[in-house]
Write a structure and sequence with these properties.
Layout (H helix, E strand, L loop, with lengths): L1 H18 L4 H6 L12 H26 L7 H24 L7 H27 L2 H29 L2
Helix pairs in contact: 3-4, 4-5, 5-6
Length: 165
């Protein structure tokens, strides 16, 4: 019953917009807007960006390493997780390109960018390994991901040292 009522309201709203009796601009213009806060501390802003991306990637990464292997039975889930990781790493990479990097974080940022690039390469190799089932592709993927995680560990240590003097 509630679903029908909701559908009727949506239908009436759509008809009202098309007929001109409902003007969404007037409704939306009356909604109060909060002013956007200007970042006070560029270092804190950068750390928030990195931490939010880490929180998004960590569960995917854990799931990937828990379920993915050269076993053909895990190929489908492995490929899907590699695709998700690639998408999120590319978004992270794009966000870092747009971010303003405080001078104190320049070295850590460069290391982080190299880590992400190597991670993208590694997950691309994982997708190839899933398709080809070749041991050499799996080994290359493993090596690329290991290098990516080594660089990521260095980044985390550098950021922690800077953030907490």
């Amino acid at each position: 019953m509630l679903i029908r009522l909701g559908l009727i309201v949506v239908f009436v709203g759509i008809v009202g917009v098309f007929m001109g009796t409902i003007q969404p601009q007037k409704i939306l213009s009356q909604i109060p807007r909060l002013p956007r806060a200007h970042p006070q501390d560029p270092e804190a802003e950068y750390l928030r960006l990195v931490e939010s991306k880490f929180r998004r990637l960590q569960p995917l990464s854990d799931e990937f390493f828990d379920t993915c292997s050269p076993d053909p039975h895990t190929a489908r889930s492995c490929s899907a997780l590699a695709t998700q990781m690639l998408r999120d790493l590319r978004v992270f990479q794009a966000d870092l390109r747009r971010a303003s990097v405080p001078a104190s974080f320049a070295r850590a940022d460069a290391t982080l960018k190299r880590s992400i690039a190597r991670g993208i390469q590694g997950f691309t190799l994982v997708q190839r390994a899933v398709r080809t089932h070749r041991r050499s592709d799996w080994i290359r993927a493993r090596d690329a991901l290991a290098e990516s995680f080594t660089l990521l560990d260095r980044t985390i240590q550098a950021l922690a040292a800077i953030a907490e003097p």
